Amino acid sequence: MTVNREAIEHGIPVNAAESRTAAICISKEGKERLVIAAKGFVLVVDPDTEKTKQLFFPEKNKEYPFASFSSEDGLFYTGAGNMLMAIDPFQEVILDYQRIDNGEEIVGFSFAEDASGQIYFTSYPGCHLLQYCLKTKTILDHGSMDATEKYPASVALDRHGWVYIGVGTERKNMIAYHPETREKKSLVPQNERTRGAGYVYKGVDGSVYGSWEAGDLKDVHDSSKWHIFLDGNRTPAAGHSPSLYTGQGFSRIHRNGQGTHRVLELNLPEGYIVIEKQLGKPKRIALPYESEGAALSTLVAANDQYIYGTSMHPLHLFRFDLGSKESKDFGGSVIEKGGGGNIAAYAVQGSKMIGFAYAGGKVYELDLQQEIHLSENSRNPNLIKEEKEHIHRPRCAVSHTDGVHIIWGGFPGYGMAGGGLGIYDVEARTNTVIPHSSIVPNQSTVALGILSSGDILGGTSIETPGGASTDELEGKLYVFDWAKKKLAFVISPIQGSREISQIFVDSRDMAHGLTAEGTYFVFDPSTREVVYKKDISEYGSPVRNAFALSEDQSALYCLLSKAVFKIDMSGDRNAEPHLFAELKENATSGVVLHKGNLYYGSGSRLMSVKVDGE
User: pTM of the prediction?
Assistant: First the structure.
């Protein structure tokens, strides 16, 4: 029987927003505005008066921008989800916005402008090129520029109207396209279309430069071989002009220093910029803004006293005191190389809590016997190592019963299929990666459990969030023999499921699983059979870290985005999951069970619901 239970809100642990690129806009009269794009809004800053104006996206759009652009006439362009926006930062108004319903998830992945002032922009994942005219408020979709690739991360136009697009990640490419003739061609030799990224940009001198040496979307600026692009062709360049963009990733600023002002530091999460004017001294300007807070990633409990977690975009470390019910935000700098990622999986061995973070498979050690701190000579937590390719996007971690190791897994780097299985030694601070080819080829481990024998039970996903293609059909369950350090067996537990998202191994060695499609099942590793399954997808999708065992081990709770299910663990080993509570606000991350309260994240808010039987 479902009981109506009101969830309790414990506030927003991280009340901050992340800059998602910015631009300095220069009017025909020479006035300047810095415009910062963030989730759900832009912030317009007058560098002379230090006044700021927050403009919220139309239609309550809360999506993330991925790029921004300052046009020749001083307007600001960005996209969020499938919405394109044109903004006048001097009048502080949104001139036009349009939803683009062409099946693409993200528009405005990169921007450029032609001689007539029309704006060209790209989209993900279909790699489309689109053209926008503000005067007529019309959009022309030129279609997909690459049949297989998803990331058109850079675009530029030459003075003859040719458009050049840098593409990654599985088979990098540089595409030349003429909008009038519709002629399109690849400028990268087929034998060089390997994993990596093509990159183009318009230099300060007005020419278009590019390279395809980068092995990753973040490394595009590091190249020894540059080309210059003109009339749809490329020729080697002896040198290359600086870009109109400064910075990398979401720290890019368009036209920075092209007028009289140059941004030296932009820190939206901390609420300030440092900017200098020609012949003047740098000054710090406060950036007040309203925010719904940063979305929460996976939660973990430690010392029966705290819940730890990080936010996403920006990554801040926070701690919630289970006694006082108060949160503390430690900020972003305490997490070395944290950036815009998040710690997606945790496990505790003794006094050490180990977190595994996106991006780059970072391994952090937090000493639970010390306070969190950052000083000139020491810090807690510590960045131990990085697995940039094999487990670029961690998804799961579990403490081994030997008291020494932590097992973890996730998705690989950009353009790759199949993530490795990590075995981290807490005492030695070393990590060993078992490649996917030795477990389930071309699939990634995203769920883990430990059997009483010490063997590892893993669940896999066929997804490739880094842009690679795949021929895999369904996710698997496998057992990895701990003593022999080799695969014991692999099966397909749920026909047609793309991912085994969650695993919990109970005291009877029965594995409770949850697929990405919302099927709950029970698997018996001894007989290698699925002994029970039920579709509970009408109550939403699984969240990360979905299972929690009650303190008396009588009940297992399962969190979906719209509901909590309860499974009786005291009787039949194949007990049916019962709907326990429906959630008014969707759960987005989980889960900690402490003294009868089930804690979870709902967007940026920390929530809890009282569970019975505690």
Answer: 0.94
